[in-house]
Amino acid sequence: MLPIPPLSAVRAFEAAARHENFSRAAEELAMTQAGVSYQMKLLEERLGAPLFVRKGRGMVLTDLGRRIAPRVTEAFAALGEAFAIARAENASVLAITAPRTFATNWLAGRLGDFHIIRPDLAVRLDVTDQMVDLASSEFDVAIRGMAGPVPGLVSHFLMRMPVTPLANPAFLATHPLETPADLHAAVRLSPEDDWWDLWFDSLAVEGQETAPRSGIRFESQVLDGHAAIAGHGIAILSPPMFQPAIDAGLLVQPFPHVATYRNAFWLVYPEHKRNLPKIRAFRDWLLDQVRRAAGDDPYGILAPMPAA
């Protein structure tokens, strides 16, 4: 790469050459006239040749200065166009990262409604359970499972995570359950999932003294839910993430008790993006969708989080 003088000095030269006046250049750049003069001195020392000479009370371009000034102006114009394109593209694309279950079972099916109210925005949804560093990534917002707000990010509470066993009614017809304790001997999906311990503990059902019965273990709630719908066992799930399957009768809740996980879903984004129109639009829409989906809130997903 060819060596380029300090851009602050080049920017001062471009403004001074365009105005042919140090005072006007200083006003445009929010600098003092002495500051512009200092930047010119640095640039001339770097080039080893004068760009301005004094004429009367003012400064005029040298022959060298006149030859390079148009090209420098064109270069800054090209930079301006490049960043204008970047700003336009950034304003027209909303990049979201969200955990697998929330993205797949809750958010994806609703994004069409968001597009209806904001057809100018292209939405890109990244599905990952990894915590993405928003400060160093291209994502605008994230949905995260957290116990509470985190420093450095604007955080909006979305919903809590209720958990309870769910199963296909055909499975329960051939594997009847009379009490929660019967679950210990039942075919449980992902039996080592800590949500099972959470649910049993919250119900004061004593844990099994021996190892849990072997069963299929999945790495996501989505897969647990699909296996339960297919009748392969009982899964410990968060009902709001499977509401369509519950409404369709593909999953039923054998016991009324629901436990609540310590984390909740939050919408987060960097502070400096707080006032971007696309961020405000998505935030307002998402919070409204959560309230609508909760309805009369049978699972208590909108209950305030306990103080830390």
TrEMBL record:
Record SUPFAM superfamilies: Periplasmic binding protein-like II, Winged helix' DNA-binding domain
Protein name: LysR substrate-binding domain-containing protein
Species: Sphingomonas oligophenolica
PROSITE patterns with a match to the protein in the record: HTH_LYSR
Superkingdom, natural source: Bacteria
Keywords: DNA-binding, Transcription, Transcription regulation
InterPro entries tied to this protein: LysR-type_TF_proteobact-type, LysR_HTH_N, LysR_subst-bd, WH-like_DNA-bd_sf, WH_DNA-bd_sf
PANTHER family in alphabetical order: HTH-TYPE TRANSCRIPTIONAL REGULATOR, HTH-TYPE TRANSCRIPTIONAL REGULATOR TRPI
Family per similarity comment: Belongs to the LysR transcriptional regulatory family.
Keyword Signal belongs to the record: no
Domain called HTH lysR-type: residue spans: 5-62
Stored Pfam families: HTH_1, LysR_substrate
